[in-house]
Amino acid sequence: MSTLKGDNISSVSSVETPQKYLNLWNDEFVQSMETPYGGSEYRERVETLVKEVKMFLKEMQIGLDGDLIERLEMVDALQCLGIDRYFQAEIKEALDYVYGCWDGSVGMGLESRSVTKNLNATALGLRLLRLHRYGVSADVLHNFKDKSGQFFFSEGNNDNNQNIIVEEYGMRSILNLFRASSVQFPGEKVMEEAKMFSSTYLKQILQKNENTYKKSFLKEVEYALLYEWTHTFSRWEAQNFIEIYEEDNFKLKDNKILELAKLDFNTLQFVYKMEMKKVSSWWAECGIIKLISIRQRPMEYYLLGVSAADEEEFCSSRMAFTKSTTLLSLVDDLLDDYLTFEQAELVVRSITQGWDISIIQDIPVDFKRILEFIFQTVHELANEATGKQGRDMMPFITKVWADYAEASLQQAQWNISKHVPTYNEYMNIASTTAAIGPLLLHPLLLATQHLEDNTIQKTFNNQCRFYELIWMSSRLIDDFRDYQDDKLHGQTASAISCYMIDHPECSEEEAINHINYMIDQLLKELTWEFLNQDSALLDWEKISFNFNRGLQCFYAFGDGFSYHDKGIKNRIKKVLVDPIKF
To answer: What's the Cα-to-Cα distance from 26 to each of 21, 98, 99, 289, rounded to whole Å?
Structure first.
């Protein structure tokens, strides 16, 4: 939040909309989006393909005998293509077999009977087994280091397929080593070493101007370097890997798998388009853009909802993600750019005292209309959640909104007084102003029934490490990406500036690097919280974790919430607008 305005503004309807506030996906465009993939014939074809691929996978399991690498590559393909939800039993059978061959001290070979352990199989197995919560240690990677402690790799056995380029086979081992490093847990030094070693090699591959490697492999390398597992989401990954496998369908063994991936992508995209039309109509009809200049991001916020919960059955959660993020953006822009501190105090009091609209009767009429829209929408979301949960959810919803509003007011006070708190003081407040509480609670209440009172209280009162990590990593990535911009807008307190206050010997560059390091450490711990073998993997925790992955992806190249040119436009176009071509 930047500095609150010192003067009242009675009306801002004539304010010219800055470029960064413009909506690239206006209602006319969204309503015009058409696709045939909602037809029953496409869904029936998906069902047929799922049955046929299941038969193929069953036959493949029988025919593979002791082969491990083909099992792993097939599981990997199903996940990367975003169709793994259809084949959970088959994936479990394959990974159970692989885990039975896993040697906790040295890893695994290409086949169950292999005496020589293989880096490619071990790295791929480590990542996939860990993603499915099998208890595997990264210490096996020490076996692929020489006496000096440096990683090494061999070309491996290429007898099974002469079409694979020898150099590429070795580099695929390095690629899988890099991908394995993206699911590292805290304190795993060998994983950090593996990441440094493998990323160096992979970057050199992309810099070479030669035809040593296939185009599909280079695309895979480029995607891996840009979007680590903690910084991407399923639909974006599926779109990219459909393109990759389309370049080289050899590894899939059956062309029905790619056909299924394409149809699944397009039929889900049809569902998203129908939902986007509702979102766009809701935003266009509210009339807010006629009152003030604010960020117009309904499609961007909807994509964030897709990143968290992409399955068809989570429609209401995606809509709640979009609406709650829009409301929070409105409140943030009002507090940042329009309201006086005294007016902001009234808004906060009206929320904490049960959404009492009478408290804000005397603020300018345009602002009051916007707040009435916010209050009304919160009540609509609360009523929907009450219907889902079977009891009144408004007290919980009011609590998370009140916490966010009060913390925002504290940050505003810091800005007005030019006060820079200590890092710990800042994070105690700023982790709440990241607004993860109200942003997540609305969709989670609609995602699952019977979310117990004590679970909600523990989760949203900072008594749960899993959610504390989401809170903190969200705040830090926002501060990291917006630091320079926030300074220009008068914001004095941020994670970076507060860290510099605590460490006066530290330069600005060193502080920025430290915050980036902290984000990395928080994501490692969050990954452990989510993937350790004792994790319960409840639907609402999965949605929350995937939300954080989507959020990190939004900030991959800068602040994707405030600016269109940070990769988000391209992701919306490829995930939500353009169908996959056959």
So the answer is: 12, 50, 50, 12
Residue whose pair of structure tokens reads 């597992």 in the numeric block: 229
Task: Single out the residue of 505, 533, 427 nearest to residue 472, CA to CA.
Answer: 427
Element (H, E) at 479: helix 465-488
Q: How far is CA 543 from CA 268, 324, 547, in A?
A: 17, 15, 6
Q: Look at residue 18 in the predicted model and tell me its pLDDT.
A: 54
d(CA 355, CA 466): 29
User: What are the start-end ranges of the H helices in 132-253?
Assistant: 166-181, 189-207, 215-226, 234-247
Q: CA-to-CA distance for 349 and 353, rounded, in angstroms?
A: 6
* Assigned CATH topology for domain 40-261: Glycosyltransferase (1.50.10)
| CATH 1.10.600.10 for the 287-577 domain, yes or no | yes
Domains 40-261 and 287-577 share a fold: no
HSE-CB of 307 using CA atoms within 13 angstroms: 29
- The pLDDT tens digits of the residues spanning 160-202 come to 444 444 566 788 999 999 999 999 999 999 999 999 999 999 9
**Domains of the chain: which residue ranges?**
40-261, 287-577
**What is the end-to-end Cα distance of the chain in Å, rounded?**
46
Query: Which of 55, 62, 157, 77 lies closest to 109 in space, CA to CA?
Result: 157
Predicted TM-score (pTM) of this structure: 0.92
Nearest partner of 11 among 372, 368, 366, 370, judged by Cα: 366
DSSP annotation of 459 reads H
